[in-house]
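Re-run with default settings, no changes from the original entry. Doing this only to confirm the output is reproducible before filing.
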Amino acid sequence: MNAPVIDLRSDTVTKPGAGMRQAMADAEVGDDVYGEDPTVNRLEQRVAELLGQEAALFTPTGSMANQLGVRLVAPVGTELLCDSLAHVVRAELGAHAAVGGVTTRTWSSNHGRLDAEQVLAMVERSTSPYFVSTAAVTVEDTHNFGGGTVQPAAEVRALRKATRDLDVALHLDGARLWNSHVVTGLPLSELAGEFDTVSVCLSKGLGAPVGSVLASSADRIAAARIWRKRLGGGMRQAGVLAAAGLYALDHNIARLADDHSRARRLAEACADAQPGCVDPAEVETNIVAVRVADPPGRRCAGRAARRGRDPLRHPSRRRRRGRRARGTRPRRRRPYPLAPRAVSRWGPPACGRAAAAAGGPRLPAPAGRRRRGPAARRTARSPGAGARRR
């Protein structure tokens, strides 16, 4: 019997349990595009209350929730500030520029941890026709590529106070805000209440198969509902998916503490096996970032480079190139396909041998054309062959 495989790549590989599947099967549904799905409506109202916002909108993905949230606070042609490792700028395929028409500038940080003064020094509220004006700042809590870093509440409050005076909006990418809530013990409304738009994910540590929620003011959510449909995110009987989110909120938030303790144990085991690869003290939530000095892919690429080979070139191309370099003559390809035997080389079937084989009159070859090919060479060499042809 094969041992079970523990997949540690990401918390996105979580799967719904039996209780969540049953809740999905029993969900009451309607048409959510018309706002008539009661389960989706309950989920949106529940999340809005938890986050201290007026309204919320269920979306298929976290990337769509972020796109909608940024679009609500950063008009086309304005600027978004974010961390250089932020998900919105690193892992959403440039959607905010390609779809939203927003440019981005980034700051470097220590494991994604927010420094309000550093951010405020970058804000540009320009009326010049040459410079882009800063419209919004994105904060990620917890910070994915920073290693699950929890954002300091004092820095968030300082940033909010200053940006309010500058008329700069704040968007919270709170895909793992649940983890921050469990670690700090602070209410979700306090963690999210300083932001104009907030996105949270249901399909990571909470274990739902699909779905995120965007929360903001009622007016902004009404506009986001239109843009969700415009981007192809309008779903019909989505209550089947929303039921999984409601089940996760009821049963799985407290269980995130187990993930955090397991992540710390994993970090300690890695540090014991390879000292210096990870600092267990830096592991705050459910993400363990291990520094690997010499990964296998890097070793293979290094060996290929030392041998004078391009590691990105396809192996079959390297083999063919090697045979030609050793002097083997490559096989020549015909520049044109062979003509069918039943069709004359000189014209339609009514001409030449094809017509004679069919029993019809044989017409001479078109005037002014020189015979080519093996038959013409035999004719030139052998008068007898030419006489027989005549």
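The longest helix spans residues 256-273. Confidence is low (pLDDT under 50) at residues 339-352, 385-390.
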